[in-house]
Here is the input.
Amino acid sequence: MTTLKIIEVKNYDEMSKKAAEYIINKVKSTPQLNLGLATGGTPKGVYQNLIEDYHQHHTSYTQIKSFNLDEYIGLNKDDPNSYFHYMNEHLFKHIDISLDNTHIPSGTNENTQAECDEYEQKIMNAGGIDLQILGIGANGHIGFNEPGTSFQSKTHVVDLAPSTRKANARFFNSLEEVPTQAITMGIQTIFQSREILLLASGKAKQQAMVQLLSGEVTESFPASILNNHQNTVVIADEEALLAVKEMSLNT
Ligand code: PGA
Here is the structure.
């Protein structure tokens, strides 16, 4: 079994509140925090809670540096499906973070290798990531690191798995519109974060939770590397943990 620290919450709203509280406490205790951010459906509620707290309690982000996990290749910054656009809409424009301190790989730099190398360097130059927020793919991906990605990988270009494109098609008009490639922080980049907060909600994440929490570490399930990380917290809701519980009842 896993040694990961698991916080079980009732539902998506509770997961979002708990994760936001966790982040807010860090931001308050370390105003110069390097914060790793994620996109997708999972963290939307977290960002909503950060914004509400900002309005109510004026938690300040002026000295925070942020680094996003990934970006689609081929989508420019104002494309509504780019992660640049997502971050502005769901968080950045609502709080006092300086846009100069926010970092997201560019999906339109034609020299993708240079973009990857520079992104990795920027993280290093900032002193590494203090707290990384992660979602998890049904196939175990973290960032866009699909199954089979080396645990030693740094920021790199990936071909998106058909299942990932299908899962993300809900945000686009059609499956064809979902880009086929992305730039993502590598697994090593993520693993070097001093602290990691992985969030999971809902039925679609049940099997991923079973595999993650089995404790087996394998490159065929990228998130499994977190079992070797010293400071990872999983916040998962009842539905996401249902299959894990059923299995432990039956053994
Ligand atoms: P989701 O994606 O938050 O949209 O479920 C998570 C992920 O793919 O990492």
